[in-house]
Amino acid sequence: MSLSLGASSGSLHGTALLAGGRPAGGVTVTVTDGVQTVQTATQSGGEVGSWRVSGLNLPGTYTVTLSRADLASQTVSVSLDSTGSVTTSSSAVTSGGIQTVLESATAVLRGTVKQPGRDGVVRPVGEVTVELSSGGSTYAVTTASDPAGRRGEYVVAGLPPGTYTVSVGRAGVRPTSTILELAAGDDVPYSPTLAKAASLSGTVSVRGSGAGVAEDYLVELFRASDYPSVVYRTTRTDDRGSYTFDDVDAPEVYVVQVRRTQGSAPIGSANVTVSASEQAGRDVRVSP
Q1: How do residues 49-100 score in pLDDT, each as one tens digit?
Q2: Which of 117, 200, 219, 269 could form a disulfide with 243 if both were Cys (CB 3.0 to 4.6 A apart)?
Q3: What CATH number has the domain bearing residue 44?
Q4: 3-state helix, strand, coil in the chain (%, to 5)
């Protein structure tokens, strides 16, 4: 007479992967048949993403649930016979164990922000604020300035699925905005081009005939609220008496003041209001 003895307990093992095929460490694995529950986690070192549980009652049908805060949960049903062999036919169950692919539970928004310069050439621009808002939640990042090869780039990760208003802007520039619908697992590119930055330019002329060109005069720019104590920007006129202040804060009220040399008394001034992205002009006449 021969006897066939079953196994006293069974085990299950597997691997958790991310959508891109990389192993996922730190994923909680819960195995239960409704009466017995065993919990473990995928390895974060060594064989990253692998897991194993043992001591399971035989025979039995178990649900295996894998979860991590940033990932969508995945559940697989597996049956073990009295010998501990898996009897379930499923694409997730292979000879190497239970292989699961976990999708992200959140979305990613990324891109490069660009802006035309005074010469009209569109280039990536750093120090631009990218802000997303949805309901009472707000997420904000700033585009990169360094290294030069990544200037203008930004990434906003870990975004819960939902509808977002995306606003992009910086001082002196009309903000641009759009509405995006983000779903779990989305990796969405968004690379807006901003309007030109605000600027202020003009010509300094000397009163009276035969006074000549106001070349190499000192031009000081003040915010009106800071005049005359705090200078915002300075430049000098060129050989035609022209001056330019690029990329100024706006909207803002400014005072343009002219001196012949540093330390000499002011010889002329003018007020000007500059709106966001405005290419404003203001000429100044000065005493000879």
Answers
A1: 999 999 999 999 999 999 998 899 999 999 999 998 888 777 788 777 899 9
A2: 219
A3: 2.60.40.10
A4: 0, 55, 45
Domain range for 222 is 199-286
> How many domains does the chain contain in total?
3
| pLDDT mean across residues, the chain | 92
Task: Please check the confidence at residue 101 and state whether its pLDDT lies above 50.
Answer: yes
Pairwise CA distance, residues 241 & 257, whole Å? 14
Instruction: Identify the pLDDT of residue 276.
Output: 92
Antiparallel, parallel or unpaired: β 10-18 and 50-56 = antiparallel
* Long-range contacts from 204-208, C-beta under 8 angstroms, 24+ separation: 204/237, 204/241, 204/242, 204/243, 204/258, 204/268, 204/283, 204/284, 204/285, 204/286, 205/241, 205/283, 205/284, 205/285, 205/286, 206/285, 206/286, 206/287, 206/288, 207/285, 207/286, 207/287, 207/288, 208/288
Distance, in Å, from the CA atom of 136 to the CA atom of 144, rounded to the nearest integer, reads: 26
The conformation of residue 213, written as its DSSP 8-state character, comes to B
Peptide bond just before 160 cis, omega within 30 deg? no
**Both tokens of residue 129?**
């604020």
SS3 state of residue 145: coil
160 lies in some domain: yes
In the three-class reduction of DSSP (H, G, I as helix; E, B as strand; rest coil), residue 106 is classed as coil
